[in-house]
Amino acid sequence: MTKEIALSKEFMKGVWDQNPVLKQALGLCPTLAVTVSAVNGIAMALATTFVLVFSSLIISLIRNLIPNQVRIASFIVIIATFVTIVDLVMKAQFPELSKSLGPYIPLIVVNCLILGRQEAFSSKNTPFRSLIDSLGMGTGFLIVLFVLGGIREILSARTLLGFQVLPDMYEPWLVMILPAGAFITLGFMLGFSNFYAMHKKEKTHKEIIDTYLSSKSQRLATHRAEVLAQEKAALEAKMKAKEKSDDKPTDNDNQQ
Amino acid sequence: MEIILIFLSSAIVNNFVLAYFLGICPFVGVSSKLSSAFSMGMATTFVMVITAIVTWLIYNLILVPYHLEFLQYVSFILVIASLVQFVEMFVKKVSQPLYRALGIFLPLITTNCAILGLALFIVLKEYSFIEGIFYGIGAGVGFTMAIAIMAGIREEIELADVPKAFRGAPITMIIAGILALAFMGFAGMISV
Questions:
Q1: For residue B36, with 0-12 CB atoms within 10 Å meaning exposed, 13-18 middle and 19 or more buried, which class applies?
Q2: Which of A86, A243, B65, B85 is the most buried (most CB within 10 A)?
Q3: How do residues B79-91 score in pLDDT, each as one tens digit?
Q4: Residue ranges per domain, chain B?
């Protein structure tokens, strides 16, 4: 039971609490570079997730065989192997997409998100746990890239995934398709996620204080009741004893 | 003439940070102080030039003749990682002041995507040996320029009243966006 909860937590932390882009600022280069449209963002995130999942799996399987001194180099070689696979498959199956992503597919090799997860998680945990963790991180990455690509696509071309969402009277913002648009949009996304996190933190602080106070007052109330009950019992016992001592002589008198 | 154009194009028009989004991690991470930003830029330029030379030689003298192009990512990243290690040891041995200035930044450069990006772009654009070297120098100068400008602005922004949620990375991104807009002014000046 407890393990189940921990696993779902392991997955969800990548989606929000430790989101690779919004919270850890990892993997920013591909995030900014390929998100001119939502489709590109999804493709990039899926490619990254594929590499992340399989390299995590392999590295956590052989984590006890890798000497500590050469671990970074071995991680990079394993990652580079999977990136080569992704690159060749994409070139063969989706030549259009591969062309529009350009050199950013090979650059997954140096995506600090992947190396960071291997170093921080897969090299210390079991394969199953690493799998869950990397799937969570991949999902978090996918969501950010989709949102960023979606915003840029809507504002620069009125469309989302190729479907028109804004009316023709809207004048497309050319800046959104340029590098400047990527930087500014991501800046605002980071800012708003920070704002939300801070707001939530304040709220949880308040909640913690409230629950503490209410539980404390409850405990005080029960304590008070207990003390009163004890005192009552003690007094009653005293009264009874007194009554008995008063009664005793009369009993003796009767007997005599 | 061609070489000068390549240099200017990689340094200004197609700036690695502001147009290709390469090397964003150090751009955000090491740009809070001007002096360290400048050292980081110099170290990156240094490694970039050596990388341009070595990867060009490996690609054209080993990988192409034996039809091993599919190994380029693995070999490039291995070469860069060992090269950085080697440069670090060499600098430590030869010049202590230089080591003290660049030392802590060198290990960070291995995972800097600008270095691998440079090697890949040289292959992609089919540059000759000399052109590749100048492309590397230009990219390094462009990176140094971008990170130094950024650090200068960030030192000033320390004094500004930025909303609490936007401090740090978010405001850096927005400033980078405005810088990228400014660098857009150079677009179309040279087309290489």
A1: middle
A2: A86
A3: 888 888 887 888 7
A4: 8-183
